[in-house]
């Protein structure tokens, strides 16, 4: 084992700025050899095990590692036993071949096309879920199924996936599960209203100026100074520069950063970057010795009370709370109009409560097919679920045609035999039309009033706007149904009265791996804590700079040289980061797909949902189903603004596809 590998073990598993003990390193080496894991894969499985066991600090000791090792062995044995019952038949799929001189960016320009004259058997449809099927028994969330060893367990046919339909986690289990109607609704029951200005997302990419990016970052600190001043009722004289030596206590507002461009943030490398007006943009090291507990991440805007008596560091005495956006609320008349829509229109009797069925919304995130094929069976399955149960909305976040998919990256794949196209003019829009759109068209044919929302991803090969914030991709030549709507990334919109914030960027994973937590805990679990960062910072991607893409989960793409597996990363356009801010109020529902274990949690009155990925690289994934009960007349009242309180009315189920 090389010195670089040992150094990476120290970097990922050490805590408190101390190196690992020799016996701990030896145990880690043993686990890596036994299960043929890389350091990154081992760390992912270790974090997954820590979340399951409630280990918030993930401290690696010889005892915890031995328990972890035994857990891995038990999981491997259970997986081996389950594979005995799996059929040996495999679906026919195109065989990936190494592309010599393959050019992914040429594909973005429509130069990589399916080979002419090729054909393959039509994709096998997965049967629709029966409406009479009883709800699966709930079971605890098994986080060890996520962030797996990327190849330790062989892939199998989607039709032979274990436990389809199993409910992994339920939020608000005391609320009744929705009974599907016996027929489709006559009219759509959801009215969409955009809160974000989608036109602004159509900015010109790859034109970022350093001066503009600097202004955006500085303005964000200035905005928070005003918020802190108003919330804590402070005079302007109470604020000062943390880099200036003095004997008086001041309040410093700035951005958390690291004094090093490499490595993970730690207490020794922590610095505070001030704004130009109060601190000339200078950075000063922070002394956190007097704090009982803290939690920071790069890019976080904080308000710190302390003193710089030496001129060399700013000693923090207190971390001031950042005020949150107000909760979403509506006037009673708006509630009543939405209730009439749920009941079938204004002719329905207002006293007929039995006529009001809850809203049902499915949330899913790409990828939508496994690494070894382009059959998109998970996508067909969730569309069948939406059609069979007559759901009100299906929200799908990208990537749809993933640039990191091995077959897409190599360009070695076929379209269905029924596809008619000119090989000389075919583009990725043609691929989308024949591989993705058919599932959505069949859904709309079976459930005409369903609302379908598509949110792009920075990994979508279809979208030339690859930076984040990201504009919607054009729908021309995609063959989508008329009821399908393509929105920006991120996007804040209203479904009736419910304010929904959506971003396909995996910010939770990056925050979890870039944050530093020390001292006394905040009382929140790991997933709730990283979700709260978004709400507190009022932004869909508050991390800056984004995480090193080499630290992100690997992908299956391989370039012409035989290397690859490194995702493209966040691809932020700093000049337009303001478009990633939350609009006016806290969203009622915040949808943030992530490689972290899927979950549904209430954080600061916000229902945060991570549906997981519908398809993992070599296995089926998960999705989320939200059943939203209408408010009662007593809740609506007759005057003033009425809080939505969606977190009390919504039942959310995390389910295996």
TrEMBL record:
<dbReference type="InterPro" id="IPR007185">
    <property type="entry name" value="DNA_pol_a/d/e_bsu"/>
</dbReference>
<comment type="function">
    <text>Accessory subunit of the DNA polymerase alpha complex (also known as the alpha DNA polymerase-primase complex) which plays an essential role in the initiation of DNA synthesis.</text>
</comment>
<comment type="similarity">
    <text>Belongs to the DNA polymerase alpha subunit B family.</text>
</comment>
<feature type="domain" description="DNA polymerase alpha/delta/epsilon subunit B">
    <location>
        <begin position="361"/>
        <end position="601"/>
    </location>
</feature>
<dbReference type="Pfam" id="PF04042">
    <property type="entry name" value="DNA_pol_E_B"/>
</dbReference>
<dbReference type="Pfam" id="PF22062">
    <property type="entry name" value="OB_DPOA2"/>
</dbReference>
<dbReference type="InterPro" id="IPR054300">
    <property type="entry name" value="OB_DPOA2"/>
</dbReference>
<protein>
    <recommendedName>
        <fullName>DNA polymerase alpha subunit B</fullName>
    </recommendedName>
</protein>
<keyword id="KW-0235">DNA replication</keyword>
<feature type="region of interest" description="Disordered">
    <location>
        <begin position="112"/>
        <end position="139"/>
    </location>
</feature>
<dbReference type="GO" id="GO:0006270">
    <property type="term" value="P:DNA replication initiation"/>
</dbReference>
<keyword id="KW-0539">Nucleus</keyword>
<dbReference type="GO" id="GO:0003677">
    <property type="term" value="F:DNA binding"/>
</dbReference>
<keyword id="KW-0175">Coiled coil</keyword>
<feature type="domain" description="DNA polymerase alpha subunit B OB">
    <location>
        <begin position="214"/>
        <end position="321"/>
    </location>
</feature>
<dbReference type="InterPro" id="IPR016722">
    <property type="entry name" value="DNA_pol_alpha_bsu"/>
</dbReference>
<dbReference type="GO" id="GO:0005658">
    <property type="term" value="C:alpha DNA polymerase:primase complex"/>
</dbReference>
<feature type="coiled-coil region">
    <location>
        <begin position="55"/>
        <end position="89"/>
    </location>
</feature>
């Amino acid at each position: 084992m090389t010195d670089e590998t040992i150094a990476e073990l120290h970097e990922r598993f050490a805590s408190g700025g101390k190196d690992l003990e020799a016996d701990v390193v030896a145990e880690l080496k043993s686990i890596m050899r036994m299960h043929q894991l890389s350091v990154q894969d081992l760390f992912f499985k270790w974090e997954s095990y820590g979340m399951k066991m409630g280990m918030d600090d993930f401290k690696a000791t010889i005892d915890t590692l031995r328990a972890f090792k035994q857990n891995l062995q038990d999981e491997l044995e259970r997986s081996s036993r389950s594979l005995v019952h799996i059929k040996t038949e495999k679906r026919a799929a195109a065989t990936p071949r190494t592309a010599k001189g393959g050019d992914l960016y040429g594909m973005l320009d429509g130069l990589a096309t399916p080979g002419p004259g090729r054909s393959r058997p039509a994709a096998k449809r997965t049967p629709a879920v029966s409406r009479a099927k009883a709800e699966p028994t709930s079971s605890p969330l098994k986080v060890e199924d996520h962030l797996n060893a990327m190849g330790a367990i062989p892939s199998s046919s989607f039709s032979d996936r274990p436990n389809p339909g199993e409910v992994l986690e339920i939020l608000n289990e005391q609320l009744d599960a929705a009974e599907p109607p016996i027929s489709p609704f006559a009219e759509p029951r959801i009215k969409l209203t955009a809160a974000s200005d989608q036109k602004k997302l159509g900015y010109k990419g790859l034109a970022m100026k350093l001066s503009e990016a600097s202004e955006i970052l500085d303005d964000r600190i200035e905005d928070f100074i005003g918020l802190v001043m108003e919330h804590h009722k402070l005079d302007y004289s109470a604020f000062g520069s943390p880099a200036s030596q003095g004997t008086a206590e001041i309040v410093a507002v700035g951005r958390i950063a690291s004094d090093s461009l490499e490595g993970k943030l730690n207490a020794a490398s922590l610095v505070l970057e001030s704004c130009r007006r109060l601190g000339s943009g200078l950075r000063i090291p922070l002394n956190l010795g007097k704090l009982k507990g803290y939690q920071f991440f790069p890019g976080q805007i904080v308000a710190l009370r302390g003193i710089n008596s030496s001129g060399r560091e700013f000693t923090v005495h207190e971390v001031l709370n950042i005020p949150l956006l107000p909760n979403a609320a509506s006037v009673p008349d708006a509630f009543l109009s939405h209730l009439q829509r749920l009941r079938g229109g204004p002719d329905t009797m207002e006293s007929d409560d039995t006529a009001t069925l809850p809203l049902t919304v499915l949330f899913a995130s790409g990828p939508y097919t496994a690494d070894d094929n382009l059959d998109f069976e998970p996508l067909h399955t969730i569309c069948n679920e939406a059609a069979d149960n007559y759901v009100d909305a299906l929200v799908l976040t990208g990537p749809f045609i993933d640039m990191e998919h091995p077959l897409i990256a190599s360009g070695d794949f076929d379209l269905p035999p029924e596809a008619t196209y000119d090989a000389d003019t075919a583009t990725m829009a043609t691929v989308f039309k024949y591989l993705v759109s058919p599932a959505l068209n069949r859904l709309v044919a079976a459930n005409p009033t369903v609302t379908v929302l598509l949110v792009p991803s920075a990994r979508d090969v279809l979208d030339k706007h690859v930076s984040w914030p990201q504009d919607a991709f054009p729908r021309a030549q995609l063959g989508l149904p008329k009821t399908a709507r393509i929105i920006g990334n991120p996007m804040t919109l209203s479904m009736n009265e419910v304010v929904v914030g959506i971003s396909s960027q995996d910010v939770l994973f990056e925050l979890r791996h870039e944050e530093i937590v020390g001292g006394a805990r905040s009382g929140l679990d790991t997933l709730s804590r990283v979700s709260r960062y978004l709400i507190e910072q009022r932004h869909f991607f508050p991390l800056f700079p984004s995480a090193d893409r080499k630290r992100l989960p690997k992908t299956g793409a391989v370039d012409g040289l035989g290397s690859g597996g490194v995702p493209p990363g966040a691809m932020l356009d700093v000049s337009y980061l303001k478009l990633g801010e939350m609009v006016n109020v806290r969203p009622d529902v915040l949808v943030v797909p992530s490689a972290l274990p899927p979950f549904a949690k209430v954080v600061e009155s916000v229902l945060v949902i991570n549906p997981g990925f519908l398809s993992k690289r070599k296995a089926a994934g998960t999705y989320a189903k939200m059943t939203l009960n209408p408010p009662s007349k007593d809740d609506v009242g007759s005057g003033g603004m009425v809080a939505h309180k969606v977190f009390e009315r919504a039942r959310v189920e995390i389910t295996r596809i």
